[in-house]
Amino acid sequence: MSVLIVGSIGLDTVETPFGKKQDILGGSAIHASISSSFYADTAIVGVAGSDFPKEYLEFLRSRNIDVEGIQILPGETFRWSGYYEYDMNQAHTKDTKLNVYTLFDPKIPDKLKDAEFVFLANLDPELQLKVLDQLKKPKLVAMDTMNFWIENKREALHEVIKRVDVVLMNDGEARQFMETPNIPIAAARLLKLGAKSVIIKKG
Fold first, then answer.
1. Residues 4-24 pLDDT 10s
2. What pTM value is reported for the model?
3. Whole-number Cα distances in Å, 101 to 12, 48, 71, 170, 178
4. I need a labelling partner for 96 at 20 to 30 A (CA). Which of 21, 52, 149, 176 fits?
């Protein structure tokens, strides 16, 4: 089984009541690919800046994650900083710097275009559509999103949902996108858009 994951690669600065870490490995594609690597052959496609630490790439390779699809561009890597209070389900954003992420044009390596399973991690839905156009016949495609794309790329997000098998959103995102406080109604509306399955995460 092979899994292709496309999404953001970042350097995060995170504060909690228990401490602070700066420029740690982050991004939706990173977290998803590490999780996937426990169960399947995994490849990652994303973009990082020339400041991206080599030891982070080596860590991904140590997990047997194929990093050939990571583009390294001149400039700084996407950065997010935020904090958590004692409720670890709620992140509070302090700053977001897109940096080289704004230049990302996903190119799927030829050997990955026939991946069986694909996860479109949090990413501009217009880029998610570009990825879908490059794939051959995946058995299953899942996608994730966030409130920023719901607010700013609603129509493109609609198109992605029509073309995937599984939609993942947290409860707040589902309510926001489907314009209802009722989670079961939000899930039913997502299914009507074309997705075969909907997973709504708590937190």
1. 999 999 999 999 999 999 999
2. 0.91
3. 14, 7, 10, 23, 28
4. 176
